[in-house]
């Protein structure tokens, strides 16, 4: 596919700039009015009037804390209570404090329907007239559940408190009373002057005043903001740099700064500083934002403009959301369903009692209780009595068990050694215990790129020079090897010891100096760049505008061409132990349109030469017809691209003095042009950058984390769609997409302009079809066969989704309404298809985009803001009702992580904000497959099996009371002994199902990873839904029928061996209870897939425990001590000594279990699931050799495939050319000292911060 021309950043709204990260959600009113006047339509307004001047909404007085406390800066909080609109610098991410913990936590817990239900039940049990069970049988479990959940929430919130405390108590220097004193971040206020040192985090959004560097230059690392680890420079105003260096000068600084109000726009800042009656313009280059880190700058001073929650990083953070799983929500609806069934049952039984008492009860002399109640009132009391008796249909022990199971699953994740990253001593961490089963239902993954998929480490891998490719393992004679050994660079005292290269032949060519093109190649790399260098403690420190640039200069250094120093007009390098200084005549920097950079140098012998490096698509258009090796280099570029390496072409051109003089005059004229200066400079650059001679090309590897392609492939087989959301440039993101095999050559890629056209066509079609609003069936966007992929930038995303601030939409719609008459009168003019007519159309446009994206096999959103990342996640959740997971490693991913159903933080190179906001954290992306396909799937299966069984066993237990009521006059009498009812869910049936919820697994972890299709039932919600719920209900009804009516039938007209009739109420209760306990414990045995000694012991132990406790509480001794509490004296021993009753128990258990065994056998034989098939062949799979599965298949080169080149040139940001040319960053001409240390150190682009 041919490369597409880049959209013009100055064009219309329909052509957003792919290189610009859009922040369109916090424009000022003035910006909105100006834009809307131009973009809505060009129809005349009814009345024209001059726009009122817009006052700055934020003002700060330096060194004046009282200024912000003035009455005009107060805002009303509640009634007459006011506080300053300026936030303090303390941040708060926790949910509770000492006073709010109890009420807030209880409020959150009672939002769960079951907890509220049991609270109401407790109130009913306190009323004597209707209480059929003691009140403590409900109070104790309820307090236990609330207490366990509250302790868990408290532990989680204490961790947030500790993190907040650690951040708020960081130290920095603040100017107070004329001198700098150390203070905590939390005590900083707007208007304070602060002093920062190298490697300090920036505590607030501050305006840079001065630094120890020349011209107040300050280097910052912005990884926490935008994920980019290359250094950026900021600069103070000239007036503050010259006059605010000393402590006394800073203490007398009293300027007034007027600027925009706090917002989340990371790319923009507009303000004015008024000092001594002079106004100075401020922009983003003068601002140091919170979350960044000071690098390579010893000291800097700044004025706090925004603090705490007003800072841009906090504005981008998003709110902490209370996350709940699908199963939680489903359980709430099922509780409602059970409650409705319960009310209907109790109402029916109450009506039955009313009629029974009217016709029978009131006429039986032995039933007279002396209470003068009417039959209707007795029915009313019976209703509430049955509410209490049948409450075990939703036992509170269910929620205790669920919390225990979730806690256990979280511990298993924490203890998993296969998710432990030894290099950084980082284990996996489950930071929540409420979302484990949701890990088994993920449908969409939203991943950051930088630091999540990649390591942020650029490595020089290969190159092609004069048509020959270097980089494969070879000997010094050029003989290829299957396995090579690293080159020994000990001959080069400046070599980077970490640099790895296995082509010994290239080294021999350089050292022998036989091939001048090879020497020219590396000389170009050491000269043509904007890397800056400074001497620190005897070492040279490089500061590169991008990690790619640093990798190329480092490679040249290792091969003997060492960049030593530069001044405003010279560059000094060491060529094979010989220093050389070149005069720099011009530096033509990168930009997004040129995709190349050039430097014009004057050699010591007087020659003038232009060196150029850039994307092959632009370099090949400018090559001389006499240039050699174009075809061979092109083939090498294709091979490099298929290996997903980032490529760059190198070329040169000799220039005569006369030609340069003519060009230089044109360049000077364009450089001082006041109108369209950039376009004129580009035209001048074009004149000189032609007839170039090709030398070769470089290939750089942006290293992926280990196992990323394999992980993505596995997750794709599990039908999980992966979207990459990154702030990086389009070509960089696309190249990584190919590297990690998210994109493949057989995919058709659709870009923003394609998507916009298709969505407009769909919108126009909808407008022309008046019936479209009622259509529910959706048409496919991609009718042609084959895989599709979507790559869209943040600018296009805004235009496609109309993602503007609400007030912008409100103003636009207001103008549309004002001009509605004019538009209607101009009937020949079609409505603008690029704008929404109403909110419904906007929503349909968003839904269309989500539908289109979800039809694609891969989606990459690049140059997106943190807020846009969260918006994309929200759209998928809203329109697809899908379970989403976000994974990232930086502060720019926090909003996305909070928005998704599951948030995963990578404890990587960009700090700990993502980890602290996440639900799960680990060190490598490849652990995600184990988290989802093993732990997530197991957790989901276990929880579903647990819930299905729990509902079944409680329906079977409770509904026996219902059948019994037909034989006791609907009098709310229990079918069992009270203590059996109390201990049933606590002791007799809890442990086996709890162990299934903790330990059960259908297949082991290796088979779970080997067969990703096993994950599909979780995505479909197939194992727990209303269908399964009603199956459990009917299974419970069947079991309760058998447990009641088989003993009932057996007890009719029977005689024991001793001649006594065993058919009394207490004996019946013992037989029914014994049958129930044996049945439900054997039923869980049928549902257990993974047997251990613990499971075996739990099943037999629960049955044995039942009989042991029953004989104790039916003994005469305990009846003597508590005669009113234990009334079943001798019932167990009397009943269970009858063989006839043992046969009844065996018959009941058999009739209950036999149909289940038959149905399971037939179902697994006729309709086996994927899991059944894998289980059936489990032994065979476990014995198979899986070595072939682990081997990585190298991608084969296909001619004619899509070329993926020059990601470096495409993605490279503008360098330091302006800075170098101005001389602002250079104090004096550096001298190369012979006593420099043996190694030149390159600044690491990211550290573990």
Automatic annotation (TrEMBL):
Transmembrane segments: 113-130, 136-155, 333-356, 383-402, 946-967, 979-999, 1029-1053, 1065-1084, 1096-1122, 1142-1163
Active-site residue list: 448
Native organism taxonomy: Eukaryota, Metazoa, Chordata, Craniata, Vertebrata
Protein name: Phospholipid-transporting ATPase
A single BP term in Gene Ontology: phospholipid translocation
Subcellular location, principal: membrane
Binding site for Mg(2+): 448, 450, 889, 893
Organism: Danio rerio (Zebrafish)
Gene coding for it: atp8b1
Residues in P-type ATPase A domain copies: 168-233
Biased composition (Low complexity): 819-835
Domain P-type ATPase N-terminal: 69-139
Subcellular location: Endomembrane system; Membrane
SUPFAM superfamilies assigned to the protein according to its UniProt record, in alphabetical order: Calcium ATPase, transduction domain A, Calcium ATPase, transmembrane domain M, HAD-like, Metal cation-transporting ATPase, ATP-binding domain N
Family: Belongs to the cation transport ATPase (P-type) (TC 3.A.3) family. Type IV subfamily.
Compositional bias annotation for Polar residues: 1-12
Cofactor names: Mg(2+)
Pfam families linked to this entry: Cation_ATPase, E1-E2_ATPase, PhoLip_ATPase_C, PhoLip_ATPase_N
């Amino acid at each position: 596919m041919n490369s597409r021309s880049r959209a013009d950043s100055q064009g219309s709204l329909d052509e957003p700039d792919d290189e610009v990260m859009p922040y369109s959600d916090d424009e000022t009113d003035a910006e909105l009015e100006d834009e809307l006047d131009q973009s809505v339509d060009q129809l005349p307004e009814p009345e024209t009037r001059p726009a009122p001047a817009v006052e700055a909404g934020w003002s700060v007085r330096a060194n004046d804390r009282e200024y912000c406390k003035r009455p005009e800066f107060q805002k009303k909080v509640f009634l007459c209570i006011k506080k300053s609109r300026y936030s303090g610098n303390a941040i708060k991410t926790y949910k509770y404090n000492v006073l709010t913990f109890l009420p807030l936590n209880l409020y959150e817990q009672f939002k769960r329907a079951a907890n509220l239900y049991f609270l109401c039940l407790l109130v009913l049990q306190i009323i004597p007239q209707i209480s059929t069970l003691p009140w403590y049988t409900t109070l104790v479990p309820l307090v236990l559940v609330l207490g366990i959940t509250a302790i868990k929430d408290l532990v989680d919130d204490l961790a947030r408190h500790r993190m907040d405390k650690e951040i708020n108590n960081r130290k920095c220097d603040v100017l107070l009373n004329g001198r700098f004193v150390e203070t905590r971040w939390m005590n900083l206020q707007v208007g304070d002057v602060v002093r920062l040192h190298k490697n300090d985090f920036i505590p607030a959004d501050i305006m840079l005043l001065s630094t120890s560097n020349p011209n107040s230059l300050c280097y910052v690392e912005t990884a926490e903001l935008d994920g980019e680890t290359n250094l950026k420079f900021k600069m103070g105003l000239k007036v503050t740099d010259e006059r605010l260096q000393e402590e006394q000068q800073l203490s007398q600084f009293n300027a007034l700064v007027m600027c925009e109000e706090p917002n989340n726009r990371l790319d923009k800042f507009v303000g004015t500083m008024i000092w001594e009656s002079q106004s100075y313009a401020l922009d983003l280059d003068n601002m140091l934002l919170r979350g960044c880190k000071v690098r390579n700058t010893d000291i800097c001073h700044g004025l706090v403009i925004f603090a705490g929650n007003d800072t841009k990083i906090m504005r981008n953070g998003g709110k902490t959301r209370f996350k709940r799983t699908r199963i939680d929500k489903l359980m709430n609806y099922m509780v409602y369903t059970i409650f409705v069934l319960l009310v209907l049952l109790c109402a029916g039984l109450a009506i039955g009692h009313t009629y029974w008492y009217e016709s029978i009860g009131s006429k039986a002399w032995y039933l007279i209780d002396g209470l003068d109640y009417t039959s209707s009132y007795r029915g009313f009391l019976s209703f509430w009595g049955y509410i209490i008796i049948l409450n075990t249909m939703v036992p509170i022990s269910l929620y205790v068990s669920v919390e225990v199971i979730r806690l256990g699953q979280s511990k298993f994740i924490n203890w998993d050694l296969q998710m432990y990253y030894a290099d950084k001593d980082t284990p996996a961490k489950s930071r929540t215990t409420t979302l484990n089963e949701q890990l088994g239902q993920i449908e969409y993954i939203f991943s950051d790129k930088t630091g999540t998929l990649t390591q942020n480490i650029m490595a020089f891998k290969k190159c092609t020079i004069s048509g020959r490719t270097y980089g494969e393992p070879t000997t010094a004679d050029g003989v290829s090897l299957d396995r090579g050994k690293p080159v020994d660079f000990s001959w080069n005292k400046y070599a980077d010891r970490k640099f790895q290269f296995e082509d010994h032949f290239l080294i021999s060519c350089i050292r022998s100096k036989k091939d001048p093109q090879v020497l020219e190649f590396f000389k170009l790399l050491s000269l043509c760049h904007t890397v800056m260098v400074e001497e620190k403690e005897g070492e040279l420190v490089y500061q590169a505008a991008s990690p790619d640039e640093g990798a190329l200069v480092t490679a040249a250094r290792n091969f003997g061409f060492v960049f030593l120093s530069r001044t405003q007009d010279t560059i000094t390098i060491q060529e094979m132990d010989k220093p050389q200084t070149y005069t720099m005549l011009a530096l033509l920097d990168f930009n997004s349109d040129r995709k190349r950079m050039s430097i014009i140098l004057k050699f010591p012998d007087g020659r003038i030469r232009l060196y150029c490096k850039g994307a092959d698509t632009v370099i090949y258009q400018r090559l001389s017809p006499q240039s050699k090796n174009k075809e061979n280099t092109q083939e090498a570029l294709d091979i490099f691209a298929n290996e997903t390496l980032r490529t760059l072409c190198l070329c040169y051109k000799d220039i005569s003095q006369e030609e340069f003089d003519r060009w230089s005059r044109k360049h000077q004229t364009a450089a001082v042009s006041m109108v369209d200066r950039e376009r004129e400079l580009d035209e001048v650059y074009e004149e000189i950058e032609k007839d170039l001679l090709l030398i070769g090309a470089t290939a750089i590897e942006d290293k992926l984390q280990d196992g990323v392609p394999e992980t993505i492939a596995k997750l794709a087989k599990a039908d999980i769609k992966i979207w990459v959301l990154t702030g990086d440039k389009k070509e960089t993101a696309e190249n990584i997409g190919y590297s990690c095999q998210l994109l493949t050559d057989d995919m058709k890629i659709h870009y923003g302009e394609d998507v916009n056209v298709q969505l407009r066509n769909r919108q126009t079609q909808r407008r022309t079809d008046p019936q479209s609003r009622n259509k529910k069936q959706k048409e496919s966007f991609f009718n042609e066969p084959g895989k599709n992929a979507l790559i869209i930038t943040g600018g296009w995303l805004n235009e496609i989704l109309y993602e503007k601030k609400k007030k912008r939409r409100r103003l636009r719609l207001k103008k549309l309404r004002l001009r509605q008459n004019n538009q209607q009168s101009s009937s020949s003019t079609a409505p603008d298809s690029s704008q929404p007519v109403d909110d419904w159309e906007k929503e349909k446009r968003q839904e269309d985009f989500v539908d289109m994206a979800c039809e694609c096999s891969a989606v990459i959103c690049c140059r997106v803001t943190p807020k846009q990342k969260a918006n994309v996640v929200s759209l998928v959740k809203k329109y697809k009702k899908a379970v989403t997971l976000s994974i990232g490693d930086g502060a720019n991913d926090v909003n996305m992580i909070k928005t998704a159903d599951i948030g995963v933080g990578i404890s990587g190179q960009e700090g700990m904000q993502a980890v602290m906001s996440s639900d799960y954290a680990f060190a490598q992306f490849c652990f995600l497959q184990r988290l989802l396909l093993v732990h997530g799937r197991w957790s989901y299966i276990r929880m579903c099996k647990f819930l299905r069984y729990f509902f079944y066993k409680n329906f079977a237990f409770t509904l026996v009371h219902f059948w019994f009521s037909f034989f006791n006059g609907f009098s709310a009498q229990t079918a069992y002994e009270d203590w059996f009812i109390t201990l049933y869910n606590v002791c007799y049936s809890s442990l086996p199902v709890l162990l299934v919820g903790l330990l059960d697994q259908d297949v082991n972890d290796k088979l779970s990873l080997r067969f990703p299709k096993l994950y599909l039932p979780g995505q479909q919600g197939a194992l727990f839904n209303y269908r399964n719920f009603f199956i459990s209900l009917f299974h419970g009804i069947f079991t309760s029928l058998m447990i009641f009516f088989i003993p009932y039938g057996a007890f009719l007209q029977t005689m024991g061996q001793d001649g006594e009739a065993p058919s009394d109420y207490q004996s019946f209760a013992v037989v029914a209870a014994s049958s129930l306990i044996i049945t439900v414990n054997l039923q869980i045995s049928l549902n257990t897939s993974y047997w251990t000694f613990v499971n075996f012991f739990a099943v037999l132990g629960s049955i044995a425990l039942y009989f042991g406790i029953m004989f104790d509480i039916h003994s005469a001794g305990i009846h003597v001590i508590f005669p009113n509490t234990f009334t079943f004296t001798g019932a167990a021993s009397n009943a269970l000594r009858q063989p006839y009753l043992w046969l009844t128990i065996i018959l009941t258990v058999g009739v209950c279990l036999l149909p289940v065994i038959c149905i399971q056998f037939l179902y697994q034989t006729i309709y086996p699931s994927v899991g059944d098939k894998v289980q059936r062949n489990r032994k065979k799979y476990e014995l198979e050799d899986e070595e072939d599965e682990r081997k990585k298949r190298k991608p084969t080169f296909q001619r004619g495939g899509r070329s993926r080149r020059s990601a470096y040139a495409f993605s490279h940001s503008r360098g330091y050319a302006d800075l170098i040319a101005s001389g602002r960053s250079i104090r004096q001409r550096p001298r190369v000292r012979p006593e420099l240390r043996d190694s030149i150190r390159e600044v690491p682009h990211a550290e573990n911060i």
